[in-house]
Design brief:
The complex is a heterodimer. By secondary structure, chain A is of the alpha+beta class. Chain A folds into two domains: 47 residues, no CATH class; 191 residues, Thrombin, subunit H. Chain A is built from five helices and twelve strands. In chain A, the strands form two sheets. A six-stranded antiparallel β-barrel of chain A has the order 1-2-5-4-3-12. A six-stranded antiparallel β-barrel of chain A has the order 6-7-8-11-10-9. Chain B is mainly α. Chain B has one domain: Orthogonal Bundle (Arp2/3 complex 21 kDa subunit ARPC3). In chain B, helix 2 packs antiparallel against helix 3. Chain B is globular and about 40 Å long. The chains are: A alpha+beta, B mainly alpha. Chains A and B meet through helix 1 and helix 2 of A and helix 1, helix 2, helix 3 and helix 4 of B.
Chain lengths: 312, 170
């Protein structure tokens, strides 16, 4: 009898816990302010402890990486060596010295930023769980003026966007997340389209919505391979932030053009990033944007989200 | 059960998870320490108290995860309840069996978390990669379980080789 009573009580407890979880899920999914505030306070409270602990245990992580990721480091070194040799060859030939210097200067001074106020931040940690590979945490938060939706860049170009902010830290969703859509412009043709990381390959970006294949088969109408891809002026982010260079152009469904872009940034290996302190238009939803498959040239792809339309 | 002790264990666990296991990963997968606490709490403290501790552990983990609050809490509480109800009859209090319990319990918690995530609209959580993550996280937790069991016994006031009997039908 006593056992049966305890079993019944356990079940009641589980039901109570499940109902509490469902309530929390519902209010959190609806963006209930106090719940978000409570989470921010808890994260801010624990931040000094984790910061201190990170410093103390960083040798453990370094040792682990040097032992178990040695192969990756070797491959990275080989790639860097090849890149260096290529640059040396170019310098010897003396074909692009001036251009190289200009690019170097541009890279160190974030030329595309213009007058936009920026905050430089250190990446304090990468993914914490096993289902959030495309998130990093940086050491700047709302105290420094960060807000959700702001663009995060490095000298090479776009890295991602601010997703969540606490007083002292911010969570950044990286460009390698296939569900993060960006309004882009192909510099060589001025065509505007919507792109995202290729699923399963965070280093490649695909623009598969919004750009139509030319009516005639004139190759001069196609975007030039190797030409730059930047953020579109009509997107939620400041215009002309570099995203990468065109690696391939393909025709899809006889109508659409699919442009494969090699990202300018090495998203997986970030230490410092810069946040562009621009005001994020409130009408842009922060949820993932999944627009109609075809978007006319010149239209703002972000505005095609139904949630945005209803906001307006 | 001392609330302070359990709170202290949970705080220490989340700090270790957020610092050590951000870098220390096997094949890109980190151990799920909070899930381990949940499974072991179910085993040591039974379905009622164990599920409560697991719920709080999941809720704490939810604060740092990008998924909605309550997801890990629900998954962990359910698994702890199952472990407390069924596992107590199947597993004994030996190091090997506790590791085995941690392997299967963690894998179940990870899968439950992903399934619930898909259910509430979190995309891309259920695929073949999920099985790989569940298997590796389970194995890592299996290795760590013997280290975690002693602090949890202390926090839950469960002496070695004694725990609540499994509730069975009369």
């Amino acid at each position: 009898m006593a056992l049966a009573q305890r079993t019944g009580r356990s079940r009641h407890r589980l039901i109570l816990l499940a109902l509490t979880a469902i309530t929390l899920l519902t209010v959190d999914l609806n963006g209930f302010g106090p719940i978000e505030a409570a989470q921010r306070i808890l994260r801010d409270s624990v931040q000094p402890i984790t910061s201190l602990a990170s410093t103390a245990v960083s040798p453990v992580g370094d040792a682990w990486n040097s032992v178990f990721n040695y192969g990756d480091l070797e491959a990275e070194n080989a790639a860097l060596r090849a890149e260096l040799e290529e640059l040396r060859g170019a310098a010897i030939r003396g074909e692009a010295d001036t251009e190289t210097l200009r690019r170097l200067l541009e890279a160190t001074e974030l030329p595309y930023v213009g007058d936009i106020e920026t905050v430089t931040a250190t990446v304090v940690r990468g993914a914490v769980g096993n289902f959030d590979d495309h998130l990093i945490t940086i050491d700047k938060g709302s105290r420094q003026g960060l807000e959700p939706g702001m663009a995060v860049v490095t000298a090479a170009g776009m890295v991602g966007r601010v997703d969540e902010v606490t007083n002292a830290t911010a969570r950044v969703r990286l460009l390698s997340d296939a569900s993060l859509f960006i309004g882009t412009r192909l510099v060589s043709t001025d065509a505007v389209g919507l792109g995202h990381a290729a699923p399963g390959d965070g280093g490649t970006f695909v623009i598969d919505r919004g750009i139509n294949w030319p009516d005639t088969d004139d190759p001069s109408l196609l975007p030039e391979l190797g030409s730059a891809v930047v953020t579109s002026a009509e997107s939620r982010y400041p215009a002309d932030i570099p995203i990468g260079r065109i690696a391939a152009v393909e025709r899809v469904d006889d109508v659409l053009m699919e442009v494969t872009v090699e990202l300018a940034n090495r998203i997986s290996d970030l230490q410092f990033v810069t946040v562009l302190l621009t005001e994020t238009p409130e009408s842009f939803p922060l949820d993932d944007v999944v627009p109609a498959p075809t978007v006319g040239l010149g239209l703002d792809p972000d505005l095609l989200d139904p949630a945005t339309e209803s906001d307006e | 059960m001392s609330v302070l002790r359990v709170g202290g264990i949970l705080l220490a666990t989340i700090v270790v998870q957020l610092t050590v296991f951000v870098d220390v990963r096997a094949f890109g997968v980190a151990p799920e320490l909070l899930a381990l606490v949940a499974v072991l709490a179910g085993f040591l403290a039974g379905p009622e108290r164990g599920a409560t501790v697991a719920f709080v552990a999941g809720l704490l983990w939810d604060v740092w995860l990008p998924t909605p609050l309550g997801l890990a809490a629900m998954a962990f509480a359910t698994v702890a309840f199952a472990v407390g109800s069924i596992g107590a009859g199947l597993f004994h209090d030996s190091r090997l069996q506790i590791s085995g319990l941690a392997v299967f319990g963690t894998a179940a918690a990870v899968i439950a978390y992903a399934l619930l995530g898909e259910l509430v609209g979190q995309r891309g959580m259920v695929d073949l990669e999920l099985l790989r993550i569940a298997a590796i996280a389970g194995l890592l937790n299996g290795i760590l379980a013997p280290l975690m069991i002693r602090p949890l016994r202390w926090a839950l006031h469960v002496p070695a080789s004694t725990r609540l009997p499994a509730p069975t039908r009369p």
